[in-house]
Amino acid sequence: MLFKCLILTLLLLDLKLFAITILSIHLILLALDKQFFPFLTDACTEGYNEMADPFKKKLFQELQSMKNGSTSKLRILEVGGGSGANLKYYQVPAIIDILEPNPNFEYYFKKNAANYKELEVNPLTQGFCEDLLAAGFDNDCFDIVISTLVLCSVNDQNKCYEEIHRVLKPGGKFLYVEHVYAEQTSFLKTMQKVLMIGNFWQFLNDGCCLDRNTDSTIKAFSKWSKVEQEKFDLPFSSNMFHRVFNWPITPHVMGYAQK
Ligand SMILES: C[S@@+](CC[C@H](N)C(=O)[O-])C[C@H]1O[C@@H](n2cnc3c(N)ncnc32)[C@H](O)[C@@H]1O
Prior knowledge:
Elements: H1 2-12, H2 16-67, E1 74-79, E2 94-100, H3 106-113, E3 120-121, E4 125-126, E5 142-148, H4 157-167, E6 168-179, H5 187-196, H6 200-204, H7 214-220, E7 226-233, H8 240-246, E8 251-258
Parallel strand pairs: 1-2, 1-5, 2-3, 2-4, 5-6
Antiparallel strand pairs: 6-8, 7-8
Bound molecules: S-adenosylmethionine (SAM).
S-adenosylmethionine (SAM) binds next to α2 and β2.
C-alpha cells in the first residue's frame, strides 16, 4: 500500500522518471526474489537449525512414537520443504514426500538430499499446501504431515489445515514448528509491526508474515481431535548475522494436531 502511494505521489508530482526507476527496480527484485530466496533459505538453514535443534529433535520424536509397534514404513508429507532443512531429523523407516511451490528450491534440495541416501525421499512435488489434491495427494494417505516455517507464508492457513486434515490417516498427526506474533505489547511486537509496514518483510522473505497468530489458528480449526502445543523463544545465536536476522522471528510455537 505504502509503495503504491509512493508511486502515485511521484506521478502526481510529475516525477515520472523517478517513479519509473523505482517501479523497475521493484519489478526486477520481485523477479529475482523467487530465485534468491531459495539461496538465502539454504544459506541460513544450518544457523537456524543450530538454534532450533533441541525443539526440532523433541518434535520429531513423535515420528518414533507413531512408528512404535508398526512394521510398515511411515508415510510422511512435508509441506513447504524448501531446501530440505528437516532431512536430518527423519530417523525412522519412512517414505517421504516433499511439497514445494517454488521450483528454484530443487537445486538446493537435491544437493542436501544427496547427504541422506538412506532416506526414501520421493522427487519434489510442486504445489501449494492449500490444494494438496491438485498436487496428487489422496484422502487418508499420510501418517504424518510436517510444516516448519511455512504457515507464515501460505495464502490461506485454514485451507491448508483443511487439506492437511484430509490427507492424514485417521489418528495421523500434523507436526509444526512456526514463528508467531509476539504475545504482549513489547518492543519486539512493535518491530514486527514496523517491519510489516508496506509489506517490507514479506518482500524480503518471499511472503513471510511476522504478525500471524498461528498457534491460535491451529487450535481454532475444529476438525482436530487433539492439539498439543508449546511456545518457545528461539535462543540467541552466537553468530551476529543470525542473531539480527532471526530476532524478528524469536517467538515460536511447536506441537502437533491429531486427526
Ligand atoms: C522460510 S521457508 C521454510 C523452508 C523449510 N520448511 C525450512 O524449515 O527451512 C518457507 C517455505 O514455504 C514455502 N511455501 C510458501 N507458500 C507455500 C504454500 N502455499 N504451500 C506450501 N509451501 C509454501 C516456500 O516456498 C518456502 O519453501
